[in-house]
Amino acid sequence: MSIFDIKRIKPTVADLKSDLASHGRLVSSLAKLPFRHGPLFMLDKYRRYPWLRTLLAANTLLEMSVRTRTGAYREASGFGVSHVAAGIGELVDNLFAKPETTVIHEDLVPPEILYGMGLNPWMAELLGIIAPLIRSEFAEPYIDAAESEGTPPDICSLPKCTMGIALKGEMPKPKAILTSNMPCDGGMSSYSVLERELKVPTFRLDIPYNFYGERAVRFFAGELKRAIAWLEEHTPGRMDWDRMRQVCEIRNKAQEYQMEVWDLVAKKPAPMAGEALYLGHMMYSVAMPGRERGVEYWREMLVRTKKIAAAGGALPDERFRCALWNPPTLIYPELFVWAEQKYGVALLMDMISYNRHPYIDTKSPDTMLQGLARVVMEGPMARHTRGPSENFFSDLFALCERFSMDMIWMAGHIGCKNTMALNGMFREKCRERGIPLLIINYDLSDTRVVSPAEIRKQAEAFMETVMKARPL
Fold it and tell me: Are 420 and 427 in contact (CB under 8 A)?
């Protein structure tokens, strides 16, 4: 029994076989780095970029995911985490192998354009998102570095982590930076620090504040055209529209499989839950969409979800179905593993995963750019935390209805001014609808603000007082 009260399930022989496959997938993906680049090269990178040590410890996330479950759900969770780790390994591999074509991009800017131009994308926020899932305290030295340089302590800790990595000289230097005016003031302003520290040309996309209607789509598609012309001027990349079409078609195919998984998850009991859903989306719809890895991931996840659906449900005893609004609790990924075990809570959907997911019309360059414009403008953190409050609430309550949610857990990251400002309205709207709401007070990346144990106590108090009184 750990400090977080997560019980390890006694594995069956089948469990041990699936664990072996998951660990083998993870180890082989990370072991490719020294084989491809040579041990001396990797030793140099290991010294220069301490974050590599955290990424190479991704087995801890795998252990949490598989050893707390059994059967087909354990197998699917292990597949999901190890496949995502393999995707991270590929991104790091390309970062070291292709410095001459690497472009750093913001997490809300579509890397599909960079793939279409033959460039190598590196999402600046990737480390600040993935590494705390592996080691909770990862971001804290970088947060301190950003604050010691004058960054206000009350802005979001994710851009502070990203700035800190650059300030400490641990952000690999790209050919250029592609960013935007989203999702918030803190995220937007962090790129001024990256531009200054890395000393590379930077392009900022202008995205409309409220992006409904064809006028907004046409405007932002024009911004993407400007970005392509600028990238052709400042990098070796050249747009190949046939290659761009292939990237968009691959993205659409992965999206089809993901939508089929969602249709199955809406059934009771849910045949899939937790990190297999949100990590897969985070990696293959945000960090590296338009790659064959994403198609493989969601195709395999669909097969596994169908298998679990035929046998019953993912959880041995699903008692509650939960929507997580705001990003997952990076410093405490064990939260929903614990909630599964103690209360039978199935995490079915989160804000980052749930967005409009428009398919891209690939018949012409203009339709592809307009499709990508919609992807960006309707994506998570853009649609939900920027613009009118209706954007924030409409999708959430539609999600609750579609997936028959019993409750909402709001990950109340104190650095997110956009969402914290809505908490009063949030409580009122949930009260009107009779939906139990837990607002978790914590910081996305800093355990010193609220510890994982304190996060769990908040959830425990909610479940014992609010949900205990509700009939099943």
Answer: no
User: Would you state the pLDDT for residue 187?
Assistant: 80
* CB atoms near residue 358 (< 10 Å): 17
* 94 exposure class (CB count in 10 Å sphere: 0-12, 13-18, 19+): middle
Which ranges of 98-139 would DSSP assign to H, the alpha helix?
111-116, 126-134
**Among residues 185, 188, 184, 148, which one has the least CA distance to residue 164?**
148
425 or 3, higher pLDDT: 425
Tokens read off for 258: 């993901």
- In sequence order, which residues have a C-beta less than 8 Å from that of residue 148 and are 6 or more positions away? none
Question: CA nearest 97: which of 153, 45, 156?
Answer: 45
Going by pLDDT thresholds of 50, 70 and 90, the confidence category of residue 471 is low
- 95 CA to centre of own chain: 19
Q: Which tokens in the block code for residue 44?
A: 């140099």
Interhelix angle 13-37/39-48, nearest 10 degrees: 100
Neighbours of 48 (CB within 10 A): 11
Query: Encoding tokens for residue 250?
Result: 């691959």
Q: How far is CA 204 from CA 144, 176, 425, in A?
A: 27, 11, 33
Residue among 326, 18, 39 at smallest CA distance from 156: 326
Sequence letter at residue 358: P
In angstroms, rounded to a whole number, what is the distance separating the alpha carbons of residues 122 and 125? 9
Average confidence (pLDDT) over 405-412: 94
Distance CA 382, CA 386 (A): 5
Nearest to 190 by CA among 135, 231, 136, 145: 145
Q: Give the pLDDT band (50/70/90) at residue 199.
A: very high
Cβ-based neighbour number of residue 423 at 10 Å: 14
27: exposed, middle or buried (Cβ count in 10 Å: 0-12, 13-18, 19+): middle
Take residue 168 and report the two structure tokens written for it.
Answer: 């400490």
Q: Using CA atoms, how far apart are residues 167 and 146, in angstroms rounded to an integer?
A: 7
Neighbours of 439 (CB within 10 A): 20
DSSP state letters, 26-45: HHHHHHHHHHHH-HHHHHHH
